[in-house]
Amino acid sequence: MKPSKLILTLIVFTAMCMNICACKGNTEGGKSGKVLIAYFSATGTTAKAANLIAEETGGELYRIEPAQPYTGADLNWNDKASRSSVEMNDPNSRPAIKGNKANIADYDTVYIGYPIWWGVAPRIINTFIESHDLKGKTIRPFATSGGSGIEQSVEELKKAYPTLNWQEGKLY
User: Fold this and answer.
1) CA distance between the termini of the chain
2) Which helix (H) or strand (E) holds 140?
3) Which of these, 16, 63, 41, lies nearest to 121 by C-alpha position?
4) HSE on the CB side for 52, CA within 13 Å?
5) Integer CA distances (angstroms), 160 to 91, 118, 129, 165, in order
6) What does the pLDDT average to over 109-135?
7) Tens of pLDDT along 6-39?
């Protein structure tokens, strides 16, 4: 591994650990409740952050898996015809999710994790939110990114789903 890649990896890992410590023991109003960590990870980076959150909170993991997996070509953001580019350019796109829905009724807090695509959450996150009754749940967004902040993505989610109980987002 090149020294610059090693340093970058260490910085990212340190930042993830620091953010996880800030999340530890998060409960609403001092009540202890069940935690779900729902996440979409196209390349494995967000899955690593989700696993760290699960370890620290004792929460259960739920992978938001697309019915049609993304290929490398699908994720080529330089190709305007790639699947991810087409989805992100269509605000109404809702990629299908594979498998059963999460049993949201069992949880008080739901972490929703995703990679930042085009400054916002991938459209499959909208599919997840719209497929589950999240009213009355504490929603804690978290994201991974190679260069974008989480603020714009959280603001877009809050604007799209204003009745949900959104908490501050964390970037890993």
Assistant:
1) 22
2) strand 138-144
3) 41
4) 24
5) 11, 16, 10, 13
6) 97
7) 333 333 444 444 444 444 444 333 344 899 999 9
Please, what sign has the CA dihedral across residues 46, 52, 54, 57?
Answer: negative
Give the closest residue to 36 by CA, choosing from 57, 19, 18, 17: 57
Beta strand spans in 1-132 (E): 35-39, 60-63, 109-115
Cα separation, 119 vs 117, whole angstroms: 5
Angle 124-37-32 from CA coordinates, rounded to 5°: 140
**Residue entry with tokens 């993830």:** 16
Per-residue tokens: 51: 């696993």
Q: How far is CA 130 from CA 97, 118, 123, 127, in A?
A: 11, 21, 11, 5
| Alpha carbons 28 and 25: distance in angstroms, whole number | 10
Any residues with CB less than 8 A from the CB of 100 and at least 6 apart, and which?
Answer: none
And the tokens for 35?
A: 């935690």
Look at residue 3 and tell me whether its pLDDT is greater than 80: no
Q: Which residues of 38-61 are buried (b: 16+ CB within 10 A; e: fewer)?
A: bbbbbeebbbbbbebbbebbebeb
